[in-house]
């Protein structure tokens, strides 16, 4: 297939070249963004490649094609290394998903690689890809259909109703579904199971018990394979808190198989390591099921996956990152960080190192700890360094692990039991909940990680405004030691349908004091993430008329404004601040009056009253 035929097949409208011959020069491309190709040339192929034959791209996917007349005329190892060079250059040039292809021009053979790291060798070649596809088809392979998430969320609603009718307690449902999902993803056989005899005891075993025992065996095998330092405790939680729970044990074989069949048909196909639409569905399970939890439990603020993704990109998680989430909950930040770090890897050894040695989590609550363990296993391990404990007991452990990235969403209204005892002993006797609104968690962690660390943390708006004595105290402590790099005002109902808190994301550089850095802080008014509430489903992402995600474009804009420190009326502003000031874009931002309509005024008033009501009685 000649070059013209290749271009026509994939889509000429997506072809991007920057030389007269239509080839793509990575030397020119990298130079355009202030990088030198020499910094990325490893020199192990004998040639300093820089000219890619054909390149296609849109806003989120790049397809790299290197052509050879006949593969049989070339050294396979050399041309694979050449393509690996181009993949490395592309990663340095953009943060897009990559499909890498070797194609014959005097024949029809092709070799295709895609996935997380795009490692160009025989082991990682996609054997089933024997014919070129269109750009749109490759995009669907890498990202899935935009509506996949919505379909899965619809399925979760149906599944929740099924679990309710089968008598499974609402607090148990998300963990039970996650455990079933993990077992199914790893070969659980559940159909046509018969009653049998226990070979160890000689007693009869019902079919449903056989299935549950098979799930336990799969979990134990996965935890053993992962090398988890907490295998026994994790198994105990997953068994005692989930599989041995009376609600699960009382399920009939038909009820159990109906649940497993539904998950197998409607959920499992979307949990695909090569499909980012399926990467973090377990977190969606948690937030979706959480809306059925009683109001008294809704202080838990489980971070939506797209916000995890944004925060991970803000701090630049890569293959060198050693990431800690000290309040890891369901593991959403850890899964996202592991995925992003592995995306940056160039070999299987690097990927394994990320999973086994560079992802760290702490969770106090047993149920959430069990869910984070399941979540990490679903996404290919990384759970060996997730521990159950109070973060305030793990200071030395944190210090020993040389953390350089922190992603966290601490509890905002924690009682004394969950807080640092050195802090609570000075509380007023009338105080029942953390007066720092989670800030003391952040400041404590900052003291125990490397000074080279970047922190991205979610805190309630009260922590940014800083009216109370305790909040002011911790704002001052942070700026006395660290630099406030950015604050993003996030959507008002970002945690819906869970906690009602209005959140901001703060980014700290721990390498120097704020006053010594002597630079302006970036404030982003990032209220509109192009998600909308759907009855019974929570917040779901919106699409354009072609079905393309509006969030993808929004995230790209948010990151561009922050990374390039652009000031745009109505979206962003730069300002020097101290601990005495408000840390909110709203306090400093210019309004783009040309874009305002009467509906915007009405929406602002509604949002304000909504905030007042959610904030509690004293302001209502």
UniProtKB/TrEMBL annotation:
Keyword Cell membrane: no
Lineage of the organism: Bacteria, Pseudomonadati, Bacteroidota, Flavobacteriia, Flavobacteriales
Catalysis: reaction(s): a 2'-deoxyadenosine in DNA + S-adenosyl-L-methionine = an N(6)-methyl-2'-deoxyadenosine in DNA + S-adenosyl-L-homocysteine + H(+)
Coiled-coil region(s): none
Residue ranges of domain DNA methylase adenine-specific in the record: 290-533
Enzyme Commission number(s): 2.1.1.72
Organism: Corallibacter vietnamensis
Record family assignment: Belongs to the N(4)/N(6)-methyltransferase family.
Keyword terms: Methyltransferase, Restriction system, S-adenosyl-L-methionine, Transferase
Name of the featured protein: site-specific DNA-methyltransferase (adenine-specific)
Presence of the UniProt keyword Hydrolase in the record: no
EC primary class: transferase
Superkingdom of source: Bacteria
Database matches in InterPro entries: DNA_Adenine_Mtase (IPR051537), DNA_methylase_A-5 (IPR003356), DNA_methylase_N6_adenine_CS (IPR002052), SAM-dependent_MTases_sf (IPR029063)
Pfam families per UniProt: N6_Mtase
SUPFAM superfamilies: S-adenosyl-L-methionine-dependent methyltransferases
